[in-house]
Amino acid sequence: MNPENRGQETTGPVYAPVPLRTAWSVDLGNGLNGTFVHSNIDGTATFLLPEVRSAAAPTHPTAPAAAQTQYEERAIHLIKVLNACADALDKGEKELVNKGLQMICSLASDDGEPLHRLASLFADAMALRMVQPWQGVCRALGLQKTTPAPETAAARRQFAVMCPFLRIAGTAANYAIIKATQTKNNAVLHVVDLGGANPDQWLLLLRLFATTRPRAGAHDQILRLTIVNEEDEFLSGTAALLASEAARLHVGFQFHPVKLNINQLLSIEPLGVRTGEALVIVSTLQLHRLLADEFAEVAANPHDRKGKKQVHATMTRADALLRDLAGLSPKLMVVTEQEADHNGAEFTGRYRKALKYYGALLDALQESVPARGSAVERAGVERCLLLEEIRDIVACEGAQRRERHEPMLKWAARMDAAGFVPAVMSPDIVAQTGILAHILAGGSTAYRVSREEDGCLFIYRNDDPMFSVSTWRTV
Questions:
Q1: What's the mean per-residue pLDDT of the chain?
Q2: The domain 150-474: what is its CATH number?
């Protein structure tokens, strides 16, 4: 309702004294409270915080400094409300969560500033978590429907363009692959992609392979690529793209599709590894999805003297797969994962870490418009990719939660337990990757890479480590 209309009476006969606006206060705890104002004319409701007007209410032009101050105040309040909602959700205080979500929806929008969009994404996920127990309601409203795979794949490709984290990671992986295998006499370089890599990464690898392998250009030098992916269109399109480039480069090329999701890869047999190949295994944002499934491994002597079954250890499917892959004795394994800790059992801590991580991603997406994509494409990435991940982290528990991101410190322990040792990236690989990051950032320091003491490469946005790239070999 327009502010100039406040206090005006309605025209026409009035049969009962109906107030134009109804107001009631709401206490969200933690010292946070405000007032809901409901209009009986147009049915709208907004939430007013002390000395901060609702985002839905019109504002008068102010000086830039005042506008920035108002935005910062509203941002602080949004974060406080989000945190209060998460605390209430963790305690099962549903009415408090409901009021908090009403407040967030009145203050934030999915097409505003990054913080507003972040609040909208997390409000969606918290609302889904609250109604998850009512499966009938979720199904009737279509809340459990996931984004179709082609749309998710398109959003992932657009994310790689707008936020070059994965392009940087793929380049570092390719340099490491070539360096680890170019001195080998094997006629076949077999690269197994467990999923997640962009076809552009393999185009670059083909070109590097053609220029750096012994007797480059001869057809007896073969690059064999195995890709695990469940989409026919992706597999066929990638095969045609790479076969055409290999023919242009006069490089022998073989393509081996494995039509499976990483969750369905129950053994290493479908990978089709052959003896005599220079084997390289690449996993891009895939292994964390296997941490949800745990099982007890039975000892070699499954029964003790009393006939009771002995449990040797409990491991995840990720650990079991890593152990099987180590048994193949690859020349190199490259692992790219989110440098985040979203696998905690405690909900509130997991939520707070996710809020910080995805806040940085949304800021990065915002900065990429319009240089590397449009606002429409940015919105598609947030809706089809980031929202799905946030929903998984915030709304799901148990085996249903697949986005179990872990920091490199934990992945290093898993790799060590599986039988891998670090294959430290050389300084020239780090330098070349750093140059690419500088170019993709338009000459700024928004994206940079850093090699830690253990040889792992971290990709930063400003001061935040966002993704890690680590290289491994077997003893």
A1: 83
A2: 3.40.50.150
| Sign of the dihedral defined by the CA atoms of residues 89, 92, 96, 101, in that order | positive
Q: Please, are residues 337 and 408 in contact by the beta-carbon 8 Å criterion?
A: yes
Do 24 and 103 touch, CB atoms closer than 8 A?
A: no
Dihedrals phi, psi of 229, to nearest 5 degrees: -160, 145
CA angle 424, 428, 432 (to 5 degrees): 115
- The confidence score (pLDDT) of residue 93 equals 93
Are 338 and 469 spatial neighbours (Cβ–Cβ below 8 Å)? no
For residue 458, give the 3-state DSSP assignment: strand
Q: Which residues contact 125 (CB under 8 A, 6 or more apart)?
A: 387, 390, 391, 393, 394, 395
Instruction: For strands 457-461 and 278-284, give the pairing.
Output: unpaired
Q: Is the pLDDT of residue 4 over 50?
A: no
Q: 3-state DSSP call for residue 89?
A: helix
Q: Which residues contact 221 (CB under 8 A, 6 or more apart)?
A: 187, 209, 213, 214, 215, 251, 252
pLDDT in tens, 21-64: 444 444 444 444 544 444 444 444 444 444 333 333 344 444 56
Host H or E run for residue 192: strand 188-193
CA distance 196 to 177: 17
Tokens found for residue 313:
């250890």
Going by C-alpha positions, the residue among 435, 325, 301, 363 that lies closest to residue 114 is 363
- Burial-class residue 333 by CB neighbours within 10 Å (0-12, 13-18, 19+): buried
Please write the tens of the pLDDT for every residue from 115-124.
Answer: 999 999 999 9
- 282 with 191: CB under 8 angstroms? yes
Distance of CA 374 to the CA centre of its chain: 20
Q: pLDDT by residue (tens digit) across 242-273?
A: 999 999 999 999 999 999 999 999 899 999 99
Query: Nearest CA to 447 among 77, 27, 455, 433?
Result: 433
CATH 3.40.50.150: which residues of the chain?
150-474
For the chain, the first-to-last Cα distance in angstroms comes to 71
- Residue ranges with strand state E in 259-324: 278-284, 294-303, 309-316
The structure tokens listed for 230 are 């469940």
Rounded to two decimals, what is the model's pTM?
0.82
pLDDT in tens, 164-180: 999 999 999 999 999 99
